[in-house]
Amino acid sequence: MAISISFLHKYAAHTEPLYALSQFDDNHFISGGGDKKLIKWKTGNTETAQLLASTTATIYFCQLFNNQLIIGDNSGGVYIIDDETKSVLFEINLGRTTFQILTANNCHHVLCADGFLYKLSNKLQPLNSWRLGQSHLRYGTQTSSNKLLIGTSGGELLVFDLKTEILTNSQKCHADSVFSVYHKNGIVITGGKDAYLRNWKMDSSGVLQPINEVPAHLFTVNHIISLGDTGLIATASRDKTIKIWDSETLLLRKVIDLAKFPEAHSHSVNRLLFNPKTKRLLSAGDDRIIREWQLGFD
C-alpha cells in the first residue's frame, strides 16, 4: 500500500502546549491544553476558534458524550458541560491529575495520578473506586470483551474486567511509563517513555505474550492511534515527529518531521486524531499549534 501525505492547515488560538484532541462531529473537533481552555474548531476553517469552556488547570482530556462535553484536568477536576449554553452541568474534583476518562456501561471510569480508578455516574456521582497500584494511571483503552487496558507510570499494563470489576492482570511491559495503548482483535501495542513500541498477543484472561518490539522514536512515545481500516497506526513523540507503522509487523512506513515537511512540529507532538471518512490526521503538541494532514492510501 502506497501512503501519501500532504499538509493542509494550521489552527492557532491556544497559548500553551496542547494535550487533548477529540472529534466533535464530522465537521468539527475540540482541543485543550495548558492554557486551560477548551476550543471548538470547524475543520478546514482556521478562523473559527470557539471557546467552549475554561477550567482552573491544564486540560488533559476532552470528549463529546451524549451531546455533552466531558473534561478532565490536571487538578483532578472532571466536568460535564452543555455544548449549547456552555454551562457546567456537573463537576467533581478527585484531588489528583485526571489523565483520561473512559465511558463504559453508562458510567465514566476516570484514570488518575494517585493510582485510583474512579467510577462515576453520568452526573459525576461517585459509584466506586479501586486502588490499582502506586503508579499513575496514564492511559487506557476499552476492548470489545469489556476490559480496560491501562498503562501506568511504572511501566505496567493493567487489565481491569468491567463485568466483575476485578483487576485480572498486571504485567511489566516497559522500563518506564506507558503513555499509550492500542488494541484490536487481541493484539495490543504499547508505547511509552522508553521510546519503544511493543506488540503483544493478549489471551482471554488478559495475559500478554510478546510478539516483537522496535525502537520507535528518539524520545517518549506520547500517543498511538489507529488509521481506520488501513492496517496502519500512527505515533506521536516528544522527538517532534509523527510516524506511520504497519500494525502487525511494526514496519515503519512514513515519517512526518521538519526534514521532510517544513510545516511539521517544532516541539513535542502530544496528541493525534484521525478521521477515517476524510482520511485527515490532526496533530497537536508543545508548539501550541494544531496541524492538519491529508493522508492517502492506494
Give an overview in words.
There is one protein chain. With 298 residues, the protein is mostly beta strands. It has a single domain, classed as Methylamine Dehydrogenase, Chain H. Helices cover 0% and strands 62% of the residues. It contains no helices and 28 strands. The chain has strands at 3-12, 18-25, 28-33, 37-42, 45-54, 59-65, 68-73, 77-82, 88-93, 98-104, 107-112, 116-120, 126-131, 137-142, 147-152, 156-161, 166-172, 178-184, 187-192, 196-202, 208-215, 221-226, 232-237, 242-246, 252-256, 269-275, 280-285, 289-297. The protein has a four-stranded antiparallel β-sheet, with no helix packed on it. A four-stranded antiparallel β-sheet has the order 2-3-4-5, with no helix packed on it. It has a four-stranded antiparallel β-sheet with strand order 6-7-8-9, with no helix packed on it. Strand 14 and strand 15 (147-152) form a beta hairpin.
